[in-house]
Write a structure and sequence with these properties.
Blueprint (H helix, E strand, L loop, with lengths): L2 H9 L17 H27 L1 H16 L6 H19 L2 H4 L4 H12 L12 H6 L2 H10 L1 H17 L3
Length: about 170
C-alpha cells in the first residue's frame, strides 16, 4: 500500500447522519380522536369523583360531630349534653339526605326500623340502637343512671351510629 492512497480515502469519510427525532404530536386523525376521548374520560372521572365527594360531605361532618360527642361522653361535665345530642345528630344526618316529609315524623320503633332498613342491619331494633328513644325522650336524671349502669351499651351505640353513617344507602 502506498501512503498516498490512504489519505484520500480518509478525506472521503463523513460523520454519521442521524435521522431527525420523532415528533410526539399525533400525525393521524385516529390518534387525535383517542387523545380527545382520553381527555373526556379524565374530565368525566374527575367530575364524578368531585360530585361524589361533595355528596358525602354530610357524612364527613356527621362523623366529625360523632367523634366530638364521643370525646364529650368521657368528660363528666359534658356527658349529659352529649347524651342528648346523639339522637339529634342522627336525625340531622338523616334529614341531610332523605326527604324531610318521609323521615321527619318517624319516632320510636318506626324510626329504629327505618335506620335498620337504610343500612341493612338489625342493630337499632335488636341491639344497642334501642337506647335511642330513651336518649331522646327521657329526663336527664334517667340518662345519668343509664350512663353509669350501661357504659358498654353507650359505646356500642356510638359504634353502631358510626357504622350507620358510613354504610347507609339513600
Amino acid at each position: 500500500m502506498m501512503p498516498g492512497t490512504i489519505q484520500p480515502t480518509l478525506d472521503q469519510l463523513h460523520d454519521i447522519v442521524l435521522p431527525s427525532p420523532v415528533s410526539w404530536i399525533p400525525q393521524t386523525v385516529s390518534w387525535w380522536v383517542v387523545l380527545i376521548l382520553i381527555l373526556i374520560l379524565l374530565v368525566w372521572s374527575g367530575h364524578a369523583i368531585y360530585t361524589r365527594w361533595q355528596a358525602n360531605r354530610y357524612r364527613r361532618l356527621a362523623l366529625n360531630q360523632l367523634c366530638r360527642l364521643e370525646a364529650d361522653l368521657t368528660v363528666p361535665d359534658r356527658r349529659l349534653s352529649a347524651l342528648t345530642e346523639v339522637p339529634v345528630l342522627l336525625k340531622q344526618t338523616v334529614l341531610a339526605c332523605w326527604n324531610r316529609r318521609e323521615v321527619a315524623s318517624l319516632s320510636g320503633d318506626a324510626w329504629l326500623r327505618f335506620l335498620d332498613e337504610s343500612y341493612g342491619g338489625k342493630g337499632f331494633t335488636q341491639g344497642p340502637g334501642r337506647l335511642l328513644p330513651t336518649l331522646a325522650y327521657s329526663p336527664l336524671s334517667n340518662l345519668e343512671q343509664l350512663m353509669e349502669t350501661h357504659p358498654s351499651d353507650m359505646n356500642g351505640l356510638i359504634q353502631l351510629i358510626r357504622e350507620w353513617i358510613q354504610r347507609h344507602h339513600v
